[in-house]
Amino acid sequence: MALDKNGIAKRIAAELQDGYYVNLGIGIPTLVANFIPEGMQLTLHSENGLLGIGPFPTQDKVDADLINAGKQTVTYIEGASFFNSAESFAMIRGGHIDLTVLGAFEVSEQGDIASWKIPGKLIKGMGGAMDLVAAAKNIIVAMQHTDRDGNSKLLKKCTLPLTGVACVKRIVTDLAFIQVTERGFELRERAPGVSVEEIIQATEGKLIIEGDIPEMVL
Amino acid sequence: MALDKNGIAKRIAAELQDGYYVNLGIGIPTLVANFIPEGMQLTLHSENGLLGIGPFPTQDKVDADLINAGKQTVTYIEGASFFNSAESFAMIRGGHIDLTVLGAFEVSEQGDIASWKIPGKLIKGMGGAMDLVAAAKNIIVAMQHTDRDGNSKLLKKCTLPLTGVACVKRIVTDLAFIQVTERGFELRERAPGVSVEEIIQATEGKLIIEGDIPEMVL
Amino acid sequence: MNKVFKNAKEALAGLKDGMTVMFGGFGLCGIPENSIDAIHEGGFSNFICISNNAGIDDFGLGKLLRKHQIKKMIASYVGENKEFERQLLSGDLEVLLIPQGTLAERIRAAGAGIPAFFVPAGYGTEVQVDKEVREFNGKMHILEHALHSDFAFVKAWKGDTAGNLIYRHTADNFNAMMATAGKITVAEVEELVPAGSLDPNQIHTPGIYVQRIFQGINYQKQIEFTTTSD
Amino acid sequence: MNKVFKNAKEALAGLKDGMTVMFGGFGLCGIPENSIDAIHEGGFSNFICISNNAGIDDFGLGKLLRKHQIKKMIASYVGENKEFERQLLSGDLEVLLIPQGTLAERIRAAGAGIPAFFVPAGYGTEVQVDKEVREFNGKMHILEHALHSDFAFVKAWKGDTAGNLIYRHTADNFNAMMATAGKITVAEVEELVPAGSLDPNQIHTPGIYVQRIFQGINYQKQIEFTTTSD
After folding, report:
1. Chain D residues close to C117, C-beta within 8 Å
2. Number of domains present in the structure of chain D
3. pTM over 0.95
4. Can you identify the CATH homologous superfamily of domain B5-208?
């Protein structure tokens, strides 16, 4: 059965390592924070100027001066720090963030990503997404394998305006865990109960299947 | 009679304006701080990371963590701030410093300055001098008109390695106050008791003398 | 040399239609509310406006948008503002979208006297169009230029009469860089104290960058998305 | 993930001869005394050393110079060190002198992922030799590149177990930028406190930049020129 959003987040959480500094985008990526393995020390970066995001505040601790990049009220953990936007993106651009998780409209088999603009429809702006994908050492895309109409979001070439080129390393969808390699989308794991055949059907870009494809362990 | 070091500093102090942020180099420029007109609010910048240098400390207030760019112990005034070297030179390079006063070995009639290196003899390094002369809006050179051997330091062309090109606006020497213009060294004022003839003799570069040259008012 | 102004209105002296103006803040967090209100009331127009976001419909820069005071918006994300979208689609508003980190760095560069620099963000995207491209260490970069302004409006938590500023939590964001990039920087603060009251080690924006400062009033500090754990 | 090391010697793990190493400090102010001593005792050699100054004859980097542990020095001002001059004139030491502001910015650029940028400093001087030149706004600039290091050694006043650092007075200087530019950044602090003890608004170097931190001992804090008013 295909994963739900929490399932995708949970699979991504298994990629976390102790001591990582991580930037989680809006949507499914944010959910990853709920599945951080017990005892692992992780520092969450918010590009509006906070290292060490804590949980949402209780009602009495809501503070207009303390928000995340999604403009939601948050708290901060012990050992946190605040800084300006230039410093915040110096951390991103300088390769100090160990892992970035973000959503996407499309990913190409070259690792290109389109995530910010739908011409004629959506003109919100790229925010920090282009900086993140251009500079993070390690990018995981969290998204559905296909759009609402069943069209694959893993393509030979992106059709929408790009956010970055040749930057996505891994993709976790409701159907699969995929490594983006020079040869294309390498299928590494299937979602529980999902067949390789289903994944092939849902993938437009070049899918590489070598040997037995194990089921995800969640 | 030619000015002594304090006289040169005093003449330069007359160029100060209320609210100025000023960087004073080592040597004669440092003395300018002793002649700040009463009631004038001036903020002294030290390129090692201090805005708002105060007087030298009393013995019991000496603090190894509080030095100026000449590595001398100092104090700080009310309203001071400390910052790192990148920020300090952002202030300089970004044109936020209103006035820079520094010494020189030579100045050319184009406003070029040589102040940091004597090949084969002196290899201390340029420190912040190149940044200062390249970026300050307003540069006054404080120096002797001639060297120990009587050679002019106001030249057609500098002979020593340059610190910066076409950047010096004004020169105050023991003999004269000179404005550097596109036409050359424009003599504006004579030191008290110094004749125009003496200044001509001591100046190798093109000296422009128009009308009566008044004596400095100190 | 007095930097202290009575209020936002007085601190606007010299502001003119058509100028390039910067506003600090991220979303509605850390925005110069008093200055925005005074500009709104002042009836200025045709600004080229540099701000990470464009406020919401009825607060922050959204107020200036509704009154059509902004001709062109330079921002990274404007998704929270429907009026923005309307004016953009109708052609009433020009917009230049810039990756957030590049925007922040271009503003810092202006303040720091760096006319241009290379960044990887935007390579291979429409952000790269008409820009110089160069490879460094096996990676493609594009040349970006400094972004200056005539006026920069920033908001701080505390400030002193020498113009030193301290921000609070995530309300710093774009304020610190913008403070360095305005020909005239106007800072409004929640608490204005005499020079000497703030720890000089803890200043976020040294006073050299601030030409005008005033004690702000009636801060609303609206929250876009109140999320709680209870 | 523990960043806390017992002492300087342990924090040097992985340091190798010939590496590029940065040392914070301006003159003798804010230098990482413990790390310098441990490197001195460790008998390393052939370093490419990036530091604004080179210490004095018998303190700071002067100690490493005297033991011929430095092959090449990248600095802005080395005038306080006679041993330096001797080795330079004898050809034992290579030196690259860089304008101080350019040095600071090149280090910041490394930490900030900016491979190159334009500055006016050095145009028309020997600093410009072999560098790209370009005019911006009627003024000539030269292209300068980021300066990275294998190890960066910095010294702070206070630090916490998450690696956050606070500097004191003018002892910040090059430390803050260098902390961002080392593949491994080793911070020594006068006072090491548990994470959560420092005000997150007052951190000068966020912990993300610091891989190793230790409680320093026996700080001498020598003064080059004690000048007093009495």
Report:
1. 109, 114, 116-118
2. 1
3. yes
4. Glutaconate Coenzyme A-transferase (3.40.1080.10)
